[in-house]
Structures are given as structure tokens and as C-alpha cells.
Write a structure and sequence with these properties.
The chain is of the alpha+beta class. It contains 8 helices and 17 strands. Bound molecules: zinc ion.
């Protein structure tokens, strides 16, 4: 429910911003129930449901400053003026003619409004919002009545919004089936356990499990997934690279977990490395963003360039993901949990799919 100001009409003074279908009888009371002009310059309105709204803007003339007004059906009982502050000179509620209500916002001089960018947006059946200005200095909210919906419906709305957000987060994007191949490289293996963390937690185990979940998730999306290792074997770095190069994979993702020098428990965080190219960098960014989302509180150590052998020598966009510090108190406690390993795998898969859908 969005209408843009029409540029041409705008010059001729009045512009019609929004119109709804039904019409309220002339004799009824004002359809404007509450309004507020908030600190950030947003005007919010609450009206009767299915109200027929019209909004206008007029440039300053000799009598008035710039004015924005909205006409509502239904008669206003008590016309009134409210003193403004900041860029607002005055707000008037009036009765332009019988059976009508008009809310006028008059601006002070030189407020540099940009009415061409204004949009009056219907939030739901009876709420509206329009951003009129960005205050340069402080502006105190002005309003009458309660614009927000009743608490009950609000809570209901919020929970459905949250549910939607969770659904969206769990959803993996769809991409073209059977088009892409991805090499997932679980770091270390066999005699090389990688980092050993708090309580003896081993990098090789964690990254293998995460890699296998990624394999499953991507396969379900029609991606061909190749793992450089599927069990605890000793695998040097060059064979990992030649495996990926020979497979002519679209991307290469090496999965690792970190350890800090001196096994400091206060060092936690996630980081993703690439070696070269905007593709590698983009892939790293997508993955980093997703793994951070499932690791609240764990520091973002960023997307960085790194000279690791496996990402330096692979020919396709390649990244190395560090999914947390096994020596860090926060990360280790998480990574030893099966649910978190699943979340991390899901996040990496999501980052990969986002990249593939974007770059291909
Ligand atoms: Zn490692």
C-alpha cells in the first residue's frame, strides 16, 4: 500500500497521496483517531478502518510556511492549534468544510523539506506513516491519542513476525539444481587432530561433523558436494587442492576451528579467510555473516585475506572458515553441542547457497 508523490502534479500545489476504496458518510465523526509526529520526523496516524485519506503539500507563500496536510472524512468536533518546536511551526486540526477533518503541519522557514521523496504508507487497515523530515537538532514529539494498536493484537503481531523471522532464517535459498559443484574440506584428520580445546574437544572431529551436515544440506538443494575426506584419515594439503582443481568445482570451502596461543579462555570469535578475488571475498562475507548470526556474543573477527595453502592454490573461489575457538570458553561450550554444530553447518550452507544464487 504505497503511493509515490506524483512529480508533475506536485508542482501544482496539491498532490493526492493515497485513496482507499470505501467512503464514510459525511455526517459521521472524524475518522482521525490519533496522531503523533515523532522525534525522528515520522508522522503516524490512526484512523477508522478503510478510511479514505488524502494528503497534500504546499510550498511556503507570504502567509504560510511550507505546509503538509491530510484530509479525513468525518467531522472534527473541536478545531485546535498546537504549538510546534524544532522545524515545526504549528500543527492545526481544523474543519475545512462541514463533515471533514484536516490535520495541517506547518513548517518553519528553511527546513529544506524533500516532499518528492515522501511516501504515505498504510501499515494496516487503520494505521499510516509518513517520514516528513530528519531533525537537525532535537525535536520533541507532538501528538494526540494513542496511535499504536491495542497491546493484545500487537503482541500477536510481534510473535507472528518473530515466527516469520525464524522461518526465514531456517529457510535455505533455492538455486538451480544440478548446476553447481562444491568442495568442502574438513581440516586436519587422522594423526593430525588440529586444535585441541577445553575438555579435550578436537578440531578434526568437529569440522568433519559440520562438513558432513553441510554436504547433506547442499545435496538436498541439488548441489554436487565433494568432501576432501569423509573419515579420520591423514590428508596432506596438496592432495586437497588437486582434488578440488581436478573436480573443477565452482567453490572450495575449508572448515576449521581455532585455538589461541596459551589457550586463553577469553579469546573467542569467528573469522573467514579468502586469498584473492572479489568472488572469494564475497563468498567469505556471505558465510561470515551467516555464522555470526547463529553465534550471538561471539566476536566478529572479520573477513580477511589469508595465505593458507589450500585457499592460495585452489583455482576456484576459495575460503577458509574458522567456526570458533575451541580454547575459548564461549565458543567451546557451544561447539561441543550437537545443536550448535548443526546451526553452524546450516549457516555455512546458507552462505554458500546465497553466493551461488548471486554469482553462479
Ligand atoms: Zn585448523
Amino acid at each position: 500500500m504505497i503511493e509515490f508523490l506524483n512529480k508533475k502534479l506536485f508542482r501544482f500545489l496539491t498532490v493526492f497521496l493515497f485513496l482507499n476504496s470505501s467512503i464514510i458518510p459525511v455526517k459521521s465523526s472524524s475518522a482521525l483517531a490519533a496522531w503523533v509526529l515523532k522525534k525522528d520526523g515520522v508522522l503516524e496516524l490512526r484512523t477508522k478502518s478503510n478510511t479514505n485519506l488524502k494528503a497534500y503539500f504546499q510550498n511556503a507563500n507570504q502567509i504560510y510556511g511550507d505546509r503538509f496536510w491530510v484530509d479525513f472524512p468525518g467531522e472534527l468536533k473541536k478545531p485546535r492549534k498546537i504549538k510546534g518546536n524544532g522545524p515545526i511551526k504549528e500543527i492545526r486540526l481544523g474543519k475545512p468544510n462541514n463533515g471533514k477533518t484536516r490535520l495541517v503541519i506547518e513548517f518553519k522557514e528553511k527546513t529544506f523539506l524533500k516532499p518528492l521523496t515522501w511516501r504515505l504508507v498504510g501499515l494496516d487497515q487503520n494505521r499510516w506513516r509518513i517520514k516528513l523530515f530528519t531533525p537537525k537538532f532535537s525535536f520533541d514529539e507532538i501528538g494526540e491519542g494513542v496511535v499504536e494498536e491495542r497491546i493484545k493484537t500487537k503482541a500477536k503481531k510481534r510473535s507472528s513476525y518473530l515466527r516469520k523471522r525464524v522461518d526465514n532464517y531456517l529457510k535455505l535459498p533455492n538455486i538451480k539444481q544440478n548446476k553447481y559443484s562444491v568442495v568442502i574440506d574438513p581440516g586436519h584428520g587422522g594423526p593430525d587432530p588440529g586444535a585441541i580445546g577445553i575438555g579435550g574437544i578436537r578440531e578434526t572431529d568437529i569440522v568433519l561433523e559440520v562438513s558432513k551436515i553441510i554436504e547433506k544440506l547442499l545435496s538436498e538443494k541439488g548441489v554436487k558436494v565433494l568432501l576432501t575426506r569423509k573419515n579420520e584419515v591423514d590428508l596432506d594439503l596438496p592432495p586437497r587442492v588437486s582434488f578440488a582443481n581436478n573436480a573443477d568445482a565452482d567453490i572450495f570451502v575449508s572448515i576449521h576451528a581455532n585455538a589461541s596461543r596459551g589457550k586463553r579462555r577469553d579469546i573467542n570469535g569467528l573469522e573467514t579467510f579468502y586469498y584473492r578475488g572479489w568472488r572469494g571475498r564475497l563468498l567469505a562475507k556471505r558465510i561470515q555473516k551467516q555464522i555470526l548470526r547463529v553465534s550471538p556474543g561471539s566476536p566478529d573477527r572479520g573477513v580477511k585475506q589469508g595465505r593458507f595453502y589450500v585457499i592460495k592454490n585452489t583455482r576456484m573461489p576459495a575460503v577458509l572458515v574458522e567456526i570458533g575457538f575451541l580454547t575459548g570458553k564461549l565458543d567451546a561450550r557451544r561447539l561441543e553441542k550437537n545443536t550448535h554444530r548443526k546451526r553452524i553447518a546450516h549457516a555455512i550452507a546458507k552462505g554458500i547457497l546465497e553466493y551461488l544464487s548471486k554469482v553462479g
